[in-house]
Amino acid sequence: FAAARMALAAKRLRRPVRLVLDRSEDMEISGQREPFRGEFKCAYEPNGKISAFTLNALINGGHTASITKEIMDRALSHAHNAYHIPHFRATGVCCETNWY
Known about the structure:
The protein is an alpha+beta fold and about 100 residues long.
Protein backbone atom coordinates (compact mmCIF):
# COMPACT_ATOMS: atom_id res chain seq x y z
CA PHE A 1 0.00 0.00 0.00
CA ALA A 2 2.87 2.38 0.63
CA ALA A 3 4.03 2.27 -3.01
CA ALA A 4 0.56 3.22 -4.26
CA ARG A 5 0.33 6.11 -1.80
CA MET A 6 3.78 7.35 -2.78
CA ALA A 7 2.92 7.16 -6.49
CA LEU A 8 -0.28 9.12 -5.89
CA ALA A 9 1.57 11.78 -3.89
CA ALA A 10 4.25 12.11 -6.58
CA LYS A 11 1.61 12.47 -9.29
CA ARG A 12 -0.37 15.09 -7.38
CA LEU A 13 2.73 17.07 -6.37
CA ARG A 14 4.33 16.60 -9.80
CA ARG A 15 7.69 15.87 -8.17
CA PRO A 16 9.52 12.96 -6.54
CA VAL A 17 8.57 12.12 -2.97
CA ARG A 18 10.49 10.18 -0.34
CA LEU A 19 9.21 7.76 2.29
CA VAL A 20 11.36 7.31 5.38
CA LEU A 21 10.36 4.54 7.79
CA ASP A 22 11.73 3.58 11.16
CA ARG A 23 12.59 -0.10 11.70
CA SER A 24 9.26 -1.10 13.28
CA GLU A 25 7.27 0.52 10.45
CA ASP A 26 9.51 -1.17 7.87
CA MET A 27 8.91 -4.59 9.46
CA GLU A 28 5.14 -4.00 9.49
CA ILE A 29 5.10 -3.09 5.79
CA SER A 30 7.60 -5.62 4.48
CA GLY A 31 6.28 -8.53 6.52
CA GLN A 32 8.07 -11.41 8.15
CA ARG A 33 11.32 -12.98 7.13
CA GLU A 34 11.54 -16.52 5.83
CA PRO A 35 12.44 -19.06 8.51
CA PHE A 36 15.80 -20.84 8.15
CA ARG A 37 17.13 -24.13 9.38
CA GLY A 38 20.88 -24.60 9.42
CA GLU A 39 22.84 -27.80 9.78
CA PHE A 40 26.58 -27.44 10.28
CA LYS A 41 29.78 -29.28 11.11
CA CYS A 42 32.86 -27.63 12.48
CA ALA A 43 36.47 -28.82 12.96
CA TYR A 44 38.97 -27.24 15.32
CA GLU A 45 42.72 -27.26 15.66
CA PRO A 46 44.18 -28.15 19.10
CA ASN A 47 44.63 -24.43 19.85
CA GLY A 48 40.89 -23.81 19.32
CA LYS A 49 41.15 -22.19 15.87
CA ILE A 50 38.44 -23.23 13.41
CA SER A 51 40.02 -25.21 10.57
CA ALA A 52 36.93 -26.38 8.67
CA PHE A 53 33.26 -25.47 8.52
CA THR A 54 30.40 -26.91 6.48
CA LEU A 55 26.93 -25.34 6.43
CA ASN A 56 23.74 -26.53 4.77
CA ALA A 57 20.98 -23.93 5.04
CA LEU A 58 17.32 -24.59 4.29
CA ILE A 59 14.87 -21.73 3.84
CA ASN A 60 11.10 -22.03 3.96
CA GLY A 61 9.96 -20.09 0.92
CA GLY A 62 6.26 -20.73 1.50
CA HIS A 63 3.97 -21.42 -1.44
CA THR A 64 5.39 -18.66 -3.67
CA ALA A 65 8.99 -17.92 -4.59
CA SER A 66 8.89 -14.13 -3.98
CA ILE A 67 12.46 -13.13 -3.09
CA THR A 68 13.46 -16.36 -1.37
CA LYS A 69 16.39 -17.01 -3.71
CA GLU A 70 17.81 -13.53 -3.13
CA ILE A 71 17.50 -13.94 0.64
CA MET A 72 19.33 -17.28 0.44
CA ASP A 73 22.06 -15.78 -1.76
CA ARG A 74 22.62 -13.01 0.76
CA ALA A 75 22.63 -15.40 3.72
CA LEU A 76 25.23 -17.62 2.04
CA SER A 77 27.40 -14.65 1.10
CA HIS A 78 27.43 -13.58 4.77
CA ALA A 79 28.01 -17.08 6.15
CA HIS A 80 31.78 -16.82 5.95
CA ASN A 81 31.67 -13.44 7.67
CA ALA A 82 35.03 -11.91 8.62
CA TYR A 83 36.72 -15.15 9.63
CA HIS A 84 39.47 -16.90 7.73
CA ILE A 85 38.51 -20.58 7.67
CA PRO A 86 40.81 -22.61 5.42
CA HIS A 87 38.19 -25.21 4.51
CA PHE A 88 34.76 -23.61 4.24
CA ARG A 89 31.65 -24.73 2.37
CA ALA A 90 28.14 -23.29 2.51
CA THR A 91 25.19 -24.60 0.52
CA GLY A 92 21.55 -23.67 0.57
CA VAL A 93 18.23 -25.07 -0.55
CA CYS A 94 15.09 -22.99 -1.08
CA CYS A 95 12.12 -25.13 -0.06
CA GLU A 96 8.62 -24.65 -1.43
CA THR A 97 6.03 -25.51 1.21
CA ASN A 98 2.28 -25.28 1.53
CA TRP A 99 2.49 -23.30 4.79
CA TYR A 100 3.96 -19.99 5.77
